[in-house]
């Protein structure tokens, strides 16, 4: 018969509490550095679990104003769980990681999506919208998310780690800091900043390390904001549970870290804190392919997507070109970022016709399973990018209505307690 | 019983011959201008067909060298069929176009994909690869394409018009010429050029018009290379047969033109002439939504995709960031175009490990139903874009092989008769 | 350049006229018999086309009453095109057939779905409904079908041959006639009949054969109504264009015949003439696997489905059990046929609540891309079968409305000129 | 910030221990009867969880022989959790149930599939195979299942409750007992039995009820084996997490019960205990549609499937007809059950060619996401049913190999300790 004895649960290698500030917990770190020791070691083939706080480390609450978003301390992000070493992994190898599952904590069945202040975090339209803090809280009901701040919508999550990667080598870290430093130097006064140099303030490694090691990590450690050659904060929604990912290995043990779990996200993650951010538990197994970097020409991770992806076959698709039609009309040269933004602005304008506020539309497109494809990148001077909204996530009909849309009022998302939007 | 009398075929409003140079045929034009008169008029609700030559107007042949691509005359493109006026359409309206079907000519069951010379047409990697002309001829066997120039591959087409749009108003045309002119002026010596000003040489309108009208069109008419507010050369593979598209109307009658039919294309259309270019027949029906531009905030076309899209659920996905890892390592600032290119270069390098030449890989990724998603555009400074190759289009296994790939030789695509690649 | 000379169309091996009675045309036959000679021979690897009349051979017209259905002569069906011999095929081999394309004739862009009279053809509910002739004419607009007889519906076709198979050997034919004869004998008075013995009346082979050969075929030839070990009239909607099918070979040359082309069909084909029946053109290529019957344990065809299948992800699903809940409440013993019928009757009752007539609902479920799955066949005594209606084929919302459905009137399908339903 | 206080977990209304025999636990019952009182009551709109033991109540262990399956006590099944009353539900209403999530217990990450003895439980091929007990244990690794007893296979689960339904009214219960009793009477000596009458032995209700009430329930209560008008043991794999189901309400409160959780199942559930049977936790929310039975002609449940369903687009499909080709060649009359069995036998024979044993193939087809469609039910005398195996669940290529399959040995599943198969 079924017994405790013949039922072996998968071990949890890192345990965290999603309600305690991250910098009071073991097994968490928020910078990339080769000198951060592995907190645990696994053998290839083992299935294991890792618990993660939300990316901010419990700074954001389940409530109805956005003051916590306004005041978020971004020197303390992203809070990652790890590193996990894999026995036998060596530089030049490929670390195969199966993302077997991702779930929220049972005790914390909610997540959030935020618009950050122009001066504190920004986001894709921070300047265009002169962004003030706003947020939506999402209730996680099994496979679905709904929000009291964006009524009329329910969708299945494409749950994924926003951030996952192997540790950089000393050389790779130096390359990052050099190239990003040059970019920062060239745009010194940009708001929001174009990139983030190493920042000792807020740096954290939840291990008992010698002070000089901690200091070195804090001083040199790469910030976690961008994705890089090792993976990192790529925010690829389809690197979801069920995926198999092939990472390059740069140091002995590979030293895998993970965090920034997302219940759902739209392609582009528009508002920066654009996914449904959550704390939760991720299940992995790993294997190693010796010499995989050479075998697969592996300059960056490659992955096989999950067989599980929400099917919303009916969509409405918006086009965008590299002309700032929503702004000053400027012609850009084959710029897919501009094209994505135009498609997004077309979509936001459409959702406003339906009755959502601009902030609700911005949050919804960030968090829902929106698909954005590169259409064409060769028709000079106009890059073309599309953005597709699945119609099945709405409980009302959003297809173009020949009579125009009836006036509807969906309220507003959570905004600052001083009412500024 | 079934009889000729009770069987009414859909009328063909424009007939062309795919084997005759386009500029000897009626109903074709290759510039955008409001003064090009409609060649036919339809009522809303009618189903009708339009025949199209391939975009070059028969310049490329079904043979085994790329000299025709090398010498292609690009002043004569794109050859569009139209314009078709729709009764009742007025500026401010939305023209709804159902793309009901697209088929190649029965007498011409083939298409081509080309890499253009750096100095004559270019393409996404024209400079990186110092591109020399190359091509692949595709045999169109019902829903499938195969190529003797890229063995080991067969895929179902996502057939679509690369180019479809309504006619611009005089004002809109002026806007285009102004903004693109400014871009050209700012990059005067660029090879390939960043954009294309009006060019009387090669301009063509296949109608009996007064010489001064023809001259005006040739002198002012916008080139067809980029997509713009009216649609145009967007090269969106999912605007495929079965789609419903909503176009803004800028002049009375809307004046719809179409051409550049593609049997298949990958997201991005990489090599510029990257789709499987074909001549063929497109079937439409239309309707009008009065005041649709205002109702739907319609600054550019929006569309509903077809329920028919090839299902290749197994994929291998490559990531790309806005760092030129394949080149000089430069850090770009949140540039999705750079990120797409890196993902593409990762994919090309991978296909070369399998045994394809760089040219074959470049052509294949351009033409096959490759999916490219914007991953995230908010993780400064790195935009992240992914590119997914469906594994089911290969008759061999392309998944990462722990033992590395066996050496295979797939020959080479069609190259220049002088052998230069 | 593109020329006629470098463009070789796929050859058409059998040409027919869809407006001429089938028994006046060459290359058509309507019985299965090993002595029907091949009308053409192909080499493995060739792509070729075959034209087909509709299954009745032009008996049904594009009009608004069902008298032609009422009076249809079923001794003359199904009209098949063929046989085509494949060089090198021998008994014991496997004939691989790629169904590359299927299109209606350009001159006949319509099809029909029929309910047959109880006493002339029947159908799944012939007895329950005491069926009288009715039909719907479908306009084929590219990938879509619509019907003036069933308003409010539009769907993409899953185009397939209802009937395709290799020729039986003499022994296999004898087996068929014996086993079906025994069934007929056991249900001698059934209306509609349970099976159909060889029937010289109406038998036809469109070749110049010796009278004694024709007579033998007419006397012994198996009727085409059921599917059998060689394929035949399986009416599997997913054996659609793009599929690859593996047939057992029973005689030298394999002798492939095809007909009964369907623009679309629901799982089950409910009303017997339940698909959208059409005349048209099918494109094939073939290959041979020597000894394939043994290699693959091939007692019946197996196939690989097309990558192209309409995606209607939103569905409403009806359950059915092997209890005649809609009839006398009788408990059947694990009977999946009864379960399918109950699911179908639940669906019909639901569509009637929406406003369709029973005849419209019956025709629609027969013709639309309805999915029917075997749920479970092991929970004694109740087989469970489901039937799923895609909601995206309606231009109105058919999901369960908490307020009930508003009264709507969709008219009626084509019925008999005497008004009897 | 995120706190315990602002994070409200969904309440668990019934808690069970999967390692304790079911008949020692509260909140479980194994018969259907209107007099079983609700163990808990919910308001419409609440999200809540229910824990379930596996259907046998811990009788089967994670080990490597099938003696527990051989000796299973089937008078004690199925063990259901419930009933749950919904406030306001009355006979004639429709109870809407959202199945929001289903997960295994963290402490029990495994499930099983069993072949039962011909004389104790049976299964679809119990007689054909003279079945002896066998089983496969599946490791549940996040979204995937693998089995040491069926190597070479990994697939994503379509997790669903095999059994879910509302309580019958007294009248409905009487109808069931009458009609099934008549069937039993007509097949008195059948092995396995055709149906199961009320059976006091093994009957269990985990509530403190008066002895006479318990006795009445045990004496009259319907067995849980078949699905019926209220839902019940329908074993529909697509009624999976994410589905919305509409149940008819027969008694006040509706009294919903659920159990028999399946991690995965193939259409048909072939071997009876054919799913991956597991213990676990199901999450629900409910609502009520007043008068829904009348509004939707609701004789049985209808449901909307989940947007989440594993996508395995590449398949190999087997056909089956209502002729017993694998047995005595008998011709059946339009019998879809026979047709399903033939398709299944074709698939089993094919998998044996690849190297699996008959028992492994039988278990695999029962448990994997196999799709079985009703092809056609109108081509007298042959029903046609298809069975599709997704190729992507194998780590080796199972497509028809022109050279035949290489000899491979996948061992054997768990069999009886006496070695009898």
Describe this structure in a few short sentences.
Chain A is α+β, with helices and mostly antiparallel strands. The first copy, chain A, is 16% helix and 28% strand. In chain A, strand 20 and strand 21 (384-390) form a beta hairpin.
Describe this structure in words.
- The structure is a homotetramer of 421-residue chains.
- Chain A is α+β, with helices and mostly antiparallel strands.
- The first copy, chain A, folds into 2 domains: 12-304, Jelly Rolls (Sandwich), CATH 2.60.120; 315-413, Roll (Endonuclease I-creI).
- Helices cover 16% and strands 28% of the residues of chain A.
- The first copy, chain A, contains 7 helices and 22 strands.
- Chain A has helices spanning 67-70, 126-129, 170-186, 211-220, 292-295, 336-354, 358-367, and strands at 12-14, 28-29, 40-42, 47-52, 80-86, 94-104, 110-115, 134-141, 144-147, 155-156, 160-166, 227-228, 231-232, 244-248, 256-262, 272-277, 280-289, 302-304, 315-321, 371-376, 384-390, 414-415.
- In chain A, the strands form 4 sheets. In chain A, strands 2, 3, 5, 11, 12, 13 and 15 form a 7-stranded mixed β-sheet that branches. A 6-stranded mixed β-sheet of chain A has the order 1-4-17-6-14-18, with no helix packed on it.
- Chain A is globular.
- The model of chain A has no long low-confidence stretch (mean pLDDT 97).
- Chains A and B meet through helix 3, strand 12, strand 18, strand 19 and helix 6 of A and helix 3, strand 12, strand 18, strand 19 and helix 6 of B.
- Chains A, B, C, D: GO terms for molecular function: hydrolase activity, acting on carbon-nitrogen (but not peptide) bonds, in linear amides.
- Chains A, B, C, D: InterPro entries: FmdA_AmdA (IPR004304), FormamaseFmdA (IPR054833).
- Chains A, B, C, D: It comes from Crucibulum laeve.
């Amino acid at each position: 018969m079924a017994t405790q004895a013949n039922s072996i649960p998968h071990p949890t290698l890192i345990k965290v509490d999603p309600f305690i500030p991250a910098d009071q917990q073991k097994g968490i770190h928020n910078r990339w550095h080769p000198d951060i020791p592995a907190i645990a070691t696994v053998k290839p083939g083992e299935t294991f679990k890792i618990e993660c706080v939300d990316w901010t480390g419990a700074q954001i609450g389940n409530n109805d104003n956005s003051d916590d978003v306004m005041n978020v301390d971004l020197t303390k992000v992203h809070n990652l769980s790890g590193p996990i070493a894999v026995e036998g992994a060596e530089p030049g190898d490929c670390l195969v990681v199966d993302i077997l599952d991702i779930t929220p904590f049972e005790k914390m069945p909610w997540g959030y999506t935020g618009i950050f202040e122009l001066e504190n975090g920004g986001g894709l339209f921070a300047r265009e919208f002169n962004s003030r803090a706003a947020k939506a809280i999402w209730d996680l009901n099994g496979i679905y998310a709904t929000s009291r701040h964006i009524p009329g919508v329910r969708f299945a999550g494409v749950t994924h780690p926003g951030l996952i990667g192997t540790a950089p080598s000393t050389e790779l870290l130096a390359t990052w800091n050099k190239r990003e430093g040059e970019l920062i130097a060239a745009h010194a006064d940009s708001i929001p900043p174009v990139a983030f140099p190493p920042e000792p303030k807020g740096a954290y490694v939840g291990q008992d390390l010698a002070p000089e090691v901690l200091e070195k990590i804090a001083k040199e450690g790469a910030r976690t904001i961008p994705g890089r050659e090792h993976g990192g904060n790529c925010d690829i929604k389809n690197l979801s549970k069920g995926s198999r990912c092939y990472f390059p290995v740069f140091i002995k043990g590979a030293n895998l870290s993970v965090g920034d779990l997302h219940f759902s996200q739209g392609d582009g993650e528009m508002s920066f804190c654009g996914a449904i951010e959550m704390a939760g538990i991720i299940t992995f197994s790993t294997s190693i392919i010796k010499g995989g970097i050479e075998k697969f020409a592996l300059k960056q991770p490659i992955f096989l997507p999950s067989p599980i992806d929400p099917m919303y076959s009916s969509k409405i698709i918006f086009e965008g070109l590299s002309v700032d039609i929503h702004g000053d009309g400027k012609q850009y040269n084959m710029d897919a970022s501009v094209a994505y933004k135009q498609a997004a602005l077309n979509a936001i304008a459409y959702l406003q016709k339906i009755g959502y506020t601009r902030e609700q539309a911005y949050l919804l497109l960030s968090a829902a399973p929106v698909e954005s494809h590169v259409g064409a990148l060769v028709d000079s001077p106009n890059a073309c990018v599309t953005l597709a909204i699945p119609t099945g996530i709405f409980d009302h009909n959003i297809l173009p209505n020949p009579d125009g849309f009836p006036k509807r009022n969906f309220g507003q998302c959570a905004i600052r307690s001083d009412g500024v939007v």
